[in-house]
Amino acid sequence: MSILIGLVVLVAIVSNALYVVNERERAVLLKFGEVVSTDIEPGLHFKIPIVNDVRRFESRLITLDSSPQRYLTAEKKALIVDSFVKWQVADAGKYYTATGGDEFSANSLLASRVDNGLRNKFGERTVYEVVSGERDALMAEITEELDGIALNELGIHVLDVRVKGIDLPPEVSNAVYTRMSTEREREARDHRSRGRELAEGIEADADRQKTVIEANAYREAEQIRGEGDAIAAEIYANAFNQDQEFYAFYRSISAYKSSFSGKEDLLVIDPESDFFRYLKNPTGK
Fold first, then answer.
1. Which of 30, 90, 223, 247 has the fewest Cβ atoms within 10 Å of its own Cβ atom?
2. Which domains does the chain show, CATH number per domain?
């Protein structure tokens, strides 16, 4: 029985004396709370029970998603900046000493340094520079500076600092949107005014062209009509000269037809006038 108890105690001591650090972790070995070994390699290791303690930390990339902050640019214009940071533990001993191995504390300490860094960088640049002109250079610069500070103070390696979005404060946004709307309305009125002016010019030109076309058409029509009347008169004259008696007879018959075309037509004329000469005598004599 005592042998069994001894084996159980031995197993317990051995299990407490051995510990494993995997590839996804960083670890430090403590002796009565004091760091005695840092950046322990992955694998199986030995410790003295009760005397030693092991603290493990995540060695993979960690994302710090900061809440949006208000920064002033070089022109004293306020911007709401939303950013995030990618970091990982680089010096396990310094990380444990500075943060107690607590990821939340590490994020809090790192967030304050990121906030100060971005505030200083935005204060040195204009709105155009931070939005588009020098945005990549700004991110590279703040990443390099923050990495040096975080590594020295917190044992953290900052891999990247990125800005997710840059917005105007609500009170500024409303003023900007109002101004933009006013400018767009002014541009719309200007375009409409130019359109009306252009339309009036087109309509005036069309009316002028219409008048010119109608005048030319009327002139050509009158010219053609005059030429036709001249040709007709010439034909009539030639026909009259060929048989003047027949022509006089034809004109009288046409006059009778036109004068008595209706039953109600009434014509008061001297019976002895030349109008009725072909009715009295077919020869007109």
1. 223
2. 2-58 (no CATH), 62-173 (3.30.479.30), 243-285 (no CATH)
